[in-house]
Amino acid sequence: MNMKSSVLPMIMYCILASILFGCSSSSSSQEKEELTIWTFTDEARYAVEKFEERYPNVNVNLLFINNDNYLQKLISVLQVEKNVPDVFFVERTYWPQIRDIPRLENLTQSPYNAEEILEQQFEYIQAEEKDENGIVRGLGYQGTPGGFYYRRDLTKEFLGTDDPEEVSELISSWDKIMDIGERVVEESNGEIHALSSWSAINNVESSNIEEPWIVDDKLTIDEARVHTLDLAKEAREREIVAKYESWGPAWTASMQQGTVMFYPEPTWGLPHIFKNNAPETAGKWGLAHGPKPFSGGGTFLAMYKGSQKKDLAWKFMEFYTTDEEFLKELAESQQYFLSNKNINQELAPTLTSEFLGDQKYFDFFVEAGEQVSSVPQTKYDNDINSLWDEKVNDFLNGRLKTKEAMIESFKTEVGHHFPEIEVD
Amino acid sequence: MLQTSVENVRDKAVKRKKMKLSHIFIHLFLILLAIICIVPFYIMIIYGTHTNADIASEFIFLPGQALLENYQSMTENMNIWRGFLNSLIIAGCSTALTLYFGALNAYGFAKYKFRGNKILFWFVLATMMVPQQLGLVGTFRIMYILNLLDTYAALILPAAANAFAVFFVKQFIDGTIPDEIIESARVDGASEFKTFNKIILPMLAPALAALGIFAFIGSWNNFIGPLVLLFTNDKYPLPLLVQLLQGYYGTNYGVQYLGVALSVLPIIIVFAIFSKRIIGSVAIGAVKG
Amino acid sequence: MFSKSIRKDHYGYLFIAPFFLIFFIFGLYPIIYSLYLSFTDWDGFGQPVLVGLQNYQRIIGDFFFYKSLFNTLVIWGVSVIPQLTISLILAVILHEKFVKGKSLFRAVFFFPNIVTAASLGLLVGLIFSWQTGSFNQFLMSLGIISDPINWADKPNFMRGLVSSILFWQYFGYSMIIYIAGLQGISKDILEAAEIDGASKVKVFFNITLPLLSPIILFQVVTSIIGGMQIFDQPYTLTDGSGNPDNATLTSVMYLYDTAFTRYQYGYGSAIAFGLFIVIVIFSIISFTTMNLKTKQGKA
């Protein structure tokens, strides 16, 4: 009994002491150089593996944090400057929020001279890599022009063709798509829709706006956004779009089941959306140009200004954006479309995808990529975009009765969340 | 006379029948409520064994065959067992600190009549009224200053100051530990802390056991604390991993169900074994409180 | 003897010191620092800038502060009233002799209380999801509806769903506490009343209920403090969004969003203090009304 009773307090003090003084576990690096990288996407694993093969004396400590929490964690560590990774991946939707944080390394300066790398990239990407003052803060390794992925079996049945060029011709305007959609829904007794939801329209149109949400500290609603709203409303009323929420389980199931004809998605949709969610549908897909060029998503690599391993960090960033051998391998084995135009172009004539019925998809995207314009974004755009999307959903689902009410409700909410923004 | 007694008997028989009928209804009501309580957990387990395509197409009430498949895709991105370990470490250490320092403090208040005893005790009680979230932003700050962000310690150390534990144990000491025991220990020459550690602490065992269950459950289920203070997935306790499921597998309900099921099953098992003790301690806590 | 113990009394400070040390660092400092921040504007980079009462002025005109407060109150009220009444009825039933399988029922009803709230939120979210939720599929397989209903789009339904989760989690807990209270009531009183010919219902209202009033007060006050802090369930149910139409945005979610997703630490802190004031007011109201009632009952 006595023994027992003295054990508990002993343990207590030990816990307290060990927590207070010796908690930080010392990392045991066996003379290998360690590089810490944070990512929100599992595609980073492939690159890190290859990087470690190339530089055997480097050990990459890759942390994969899910998108839901990533931005918040990243901003937290940048604020307190503790546990900051040397290199971090940033998704395009919140890149403007990160880009202007004064903890990011200036990549324009030497020894980086990132402008030289930028020259090899698509124009729309170059614009986004720079901050307000034109200084390069991140490198995009991914090319993200989009296209209309379509089910060949469905276009054959309803449109009489599965040839990419003919399909492109048939869907060259929203009006044409709406007419097709109406017919398809009728002929299939409501089973099959042209598009999965209004987000499909938004994927295309939101890439064609001219002004960001905030111009001179004032909320600005680009005309293209209102136009999208009208299109979405019409599409919903005419049952062109199904009601599958993007990234929801019904949406992915629709790819497997073939209940949606077109999915406007960017390059990375091929490996990440279609192959991933509907592997058994290989060969049933095609790729066509829609009413407008667009791009979607994209990833930037940025370096922490206070990093102790800047050389190594830069090595990795360079490797991911310019290393010809690696990039070719990446493109071919992962079906990965790059930001580097030269390499894309080199591969374009030969690279085909079995999943897309042997279509030359690099060729397709090289062409599409040239027409994509860059989307101006401010650090508020990500938050405001999701507010807007919410309100559009409310409007389409009927809780907000009119367009005017919807826009009014949207403005109020923006004004409340960001008192520094002027809202009329 | 005779008539009335016959009527009485008949009356009673009718009453008994009525009673029986009402008993059946009461039992049915209880069973129905129990089923409502169990159904979601049943669905969770069954759905965890199906593919997303199955789940997307129809209502299911029998187990499927995708258990292994779902488990494999889940382990690709998250280590739920690591989450268990994290939860165990955090909840275990927190509970230990809560119990020991709660008891130490309660003993100090109960058995030493120092100046300001009453006022300080009321102060401790008053802190119970303050919601944890009030200091959320400040907590983030102090953990940063102490360099404790993204460590278990950030979640464990504050557990040493648990006002409810103090209150609870003090009630118990007041009721069960007479001053004579302490006096006789002093006569024997034991130091004050030795007396506490070797004599008092074992006597508090029943109270500490009840309190420990409370503290452990509270810490095990803590969500907003680790959400704010931890950054690294490897350190995430179970509730955060569960929330992450949505992000990693938003498109795959089979995996999400399985993840939720795995996070709940061990609790079911532990509860099945210790349910009497757990419920007992809740009851004690309430009556004392 | 007496003199000896007096000499030892200063040891008390040593015994309570660790608690207070930890409390000052991890309990009090954060609160004071939050109070300071509530008078500043700070995005986490650079230094906080003092702005006086600006944040509090903003709260007064902040629609979402009131809305989140309203949501919290509605969600809390809808869950707590059945929680405290149904559990009382259950406690009385399970306290009766004739009921079979008492301990099993107690265990089943109590069980959801120890399950992680985050898991419950996510689970219910899965079951009630639009296109693939099992609830919709269940209704469809019975032929009650032909198209899946978008539950997540119905503000009152979603509020009700959060309330239901809370009810589900806490009615068993309340029940156990009531049972403990019932066990404390002397059986003689109840039996004497029954022999006098009082019906069960009468006994319940005239004897059991007044005797339980301290326990009811305890439950009401703890549920106010807990209820104002509702976060886990709506957060995981709606994937952190508080939708539809911010109907499930609770006060603490609003605090969290403001401070930790929009990085307005100053305003977030001000919201915390605004919320605290509301909790204090409600606690005082419930204390005084309960006290008044018990006094009236006694008189």
Automatic annotation (TrEMBL), chain A:
<dbReference type="InterPro" id="IPR006059">
    <property type="entry name" value="SBP"/>
</dbReference>
<protein>
    <submittedName>
        <fullName>ABC-type glycerol-3-phosphate transport system, substrate-binding protein</fullName>
    </submittedName>
</protein>
<dbReference type="InterPro" id="IPR050490">
    <property type="entry name" value="Bact_solute-bd_prot1"/>
</dbReference>
<keyword id="KW-0732">Signal</keyword>
<dbReference type="Pfam" id="PF13416">
    <property type="entry name" value="SBP_bac_8"/>
</dbReference>
<feature type="signal peptide">
    <location>
        <begin position="1"/>
        <end position="29"/>
    </location>
</feature>
Automatic annotation (TrEMBL), chain B:
<dbReference type="GO" id="GO:0055085">
    <property type="term" value="P:transmembrane transport"/>
</dbReference>
<feature type="transmembrane region" description="Helical">
    <location>
        <begin position="119"/>
        <end position="146"/>
    </location>
</feature>
<feature type="domain" description="ABC transmembrane type-1">
    <location>
        <begin position="84"/>
        <end position="274"/>
    </location>
</feature>
<keyword id="KW-0812">Transmembrane</keyword>
<protein>
    <submittedName>
        <fullName>Carbohydrate ABC transporter membrane protein 2, CUT1 family</fullName>
    </submittedName>
</protein>
<dbReference type="InterPro" id="IPR000515">
    <property type="entry name" value="MetI-like"/>
</dbReference>
<keyword id="KW-1003">Cell membrane</keyword>
<dbReference type="GO" id="GO:0005886">
    <property type="term" value="C:plasma membrane"/>
</dbReference>
<feature type="transmembrane region" description="Helical">
    <location>
        <begin position="84"/>
        <end position="107"/>
    </location>
</feature>
<keyword id="KW-0813">Transport</keyword>
<dbReference type="Pfam" id="PF00528">
    <property type="entry name" value="BPD_transp_1"/>
</dbReference>
<feature type="transmembrane region" description="Helical">
    <location>
        <begin position="21"/>
        <end position="47"/>
    </location>
</feature>
<feature type="transmembrane region" description="Helical">
    <location>
        <begin position="152"/>
        <end position="169"/>
    </location>
</feature>
<keyword id="KW-0472">Membrane</keyword>
<feature type="transmembrane region" description="Helical">
    <location>
        <begin position="199"/>
        <end position="220"/>
    </location>
</feature>
From TrEMBL, chain C:
<keyword id="KW-0472">Membrane</keyword>
<dbReference type="GO" id="GO:0005886">
    <property type="term" value="C:plasma membrane"/>
</dbReference>
<keyword id="KW-1003">Cell membrane</keyword>
<feature type="transmembrane region" description="Helical">
    <location>
        <begin position="12"/>
        <end position="32"/>
    </location>
</feature>
<dbReference type="InterPro" id="IPR000515">
    <property type="entry name" value="MetI-like"/>
</dbReference>
<feature type="transmembrane region" description="Helical">
    <location>
        <begin position="107"/>
        <end position="130"/>
    </location>
</feature>
<keyword id="KW-0813">Transport</keyword>
<keyword id="KW-1133">Transmembrane helix</keyword>
<comment type="similarity">
    <text>Belongs to the binding-protein-dependent transport system permease family.</text>
</comment>
<dbReference type="GO" id="GO:0055085">
    <property type="term" value="P:transmembrane transport"/>
</dbReference>
<feature type="transmembrane region" description="Helical">
    <location>
        <begin position="203"/>
        <end position="231"/>
    </location>
</feature>
<feature type="domain" description="ABC transmembrane type-1">
    <location>
        <begin position="69"/>
        <end position="286"/>
    </location>
</feature>
<feature type="transmembrane region" description="Helical">
    <location>
        <begin position="265"/>
        <end position="288"/>
    </location>
</feature>
<feature type="transmembrane region" description="Helical">
    <location>
        <begin position="161"/>
        <end position="182"/>
    </location>
</feature>
<dbReference type="Pfam" id="PF00528">
    <property type="entry name" value="BPD_transp_1"/>
</dbReference>
